[in-house]
Write a structure and sequence with these properties.
- By secondary structure, this protein is an alpha/beta fold.
- The protein has a single domain, classed as Class I glutamine amidotransferase (GATase) domain (Rossmann fold), CATH 3.40.50.880.
- It is built from six helices and 14 strands.
- The chain has a ten-stranded mixed beta sheet, with helices on both faces. Strands 1-2 form a two-stranded antiparallel ribbon.
- Helix 2 links the parallel strand 7 and strand 8.
- It is globular.
- It starts with 17 loop residues before the first strand and ends with a helix.
């Protein structure tokens, strides 16, 4: 009788550490969330999550999971939500920003409102799970794939204490090489946080204006028109930043930190036609402002390109 032998090799340990990741079972109830109790026309339901444990291999410090092996792994975006008091530009703008990331998790930070337990909430919309959380001591605790800073009614030229926390989040993200996008106020705050200067112009600008490329960049260079609504301007870029695009009224309309996935734009790529129409209907834009934003712009392409760059 022939004897068949089987050669056994010792099991090799994983090349990367194993991290225990929670799987989530969600139950929906109809108590209004924090967002729906404010001017923000948020959802009318919230979720409680019970977490069980399953093992996932962590391939890197950031969430670089193989989507074939772990299809439930979503992109995580930290969004400094500084227009929460404006339904269209706030919630509507957030939806436009997050749409290219779907499915994804969006962690909303509102440093201008302080850290209060009553502000925390969770809801889902169009493939995005939104969670409003406290500003962390370290951005590393959240392990985001991207950090985005929205516009604001506040002004960097008129500094307020809460801007220190927002600046710290951006500084930490840049230091950790996490992709960052600053929009309008977010662009100004990002530049200020990294050592640039922001000053107030004599007049406000509300327009859809042509953009001129003054440097090559895969993210910003293809953008041809931007919607501007601001009075503060970045008058000096931070060290290591290079100007990518300008407009007739705004020299530093778009910049990138050299060698890092960090961008700032003075215009509003998230201000889609639907957002503008809703803002006018809500009374956030008067007839003159609404007419100034009649032209189309291609900010949506910029948001899609940024999302593609960030997704693991």
């Amino acid at each position: 009788m022939a004897v068949i032998g089987v050669l056994l090799h010792p099991v090799q340990p994983p090349s990367k550490p194993i991290m225990m990741m929670p799987s989530v079972v969600s139950i929906t109830f109809t108590t209004p969330s924090w967002a729906s109790r404010t001017a923000c026309t948020g959802p009318t339901f919230s979720k409680i999550n019970w977490r069980s444990t399953s093992a996932m291999v962590r391939w890197s410090r950031r969430r670089a999971f193989n989507p074939t092996l772990f299809p439930s792994c979503m992109t995580t975006v930290v969004l400094l939500d500084l227009l929460v008091d404006r339904p269209a530009f706030g919630q509507g703008g957030n939806a436009e920003i997050m749409a290219p990331f779907a499915p994804a998790e969006c962690l909303l930070l509102t440093p201008q409102l302080g850290n209060r337990e009553s502000f925390r909430s969770e809801w889902e919309s169009n493939g995005i799970t939104y969670r409003r959380i406290d500003v962390p001591e370290s951005i590393d605790d959240l392990e985001p794939d991207a950090v985005i800073c929205s516009g604001s009614r506040a002004n960097v030229s008129m500094w307020e204490p809460w801007m220190d926390d927002a600046s710290r989040v951006l500084q930490q993200a840049v230091a950790a090489n996490i992709p960052v996008l600053g929009i309008c106020f977010g662009h100004q705050l990002l530049c200020k946080a990294l050592g640039g200067e922001v000053e107030r112009a004599p007049q406000r600008t509300d327009s859809v204006s042509p953009l001129f490329s003054v440097g090559m960049d895969t993210l910003l260079s293809p953008t041809r028109k931007g919607l501007f609504t601001h009075q503060d301007h970045v008058t000096r870029l931070p060290p290591g930043a290079r100007r990518i695009i300008s407009s007739k009224h705004c020299e530093n309309a778009g910049m990138r930190i050299a060698g890092k996935p960090v961008w700032g734009v003075q215009f509003h790529p998230e201000a889609s036609r639907a957002v503008i129409d809703q803002a006018h209907e809500d009374g956030d834009l008067d007839d003159t402002e609404f007419a100034a934003f009649e032209q189309e712009h291609d900010g949506g392409d910029l948001l899609a390109a940024f999302a593609k760059l960030c997704m693991p």
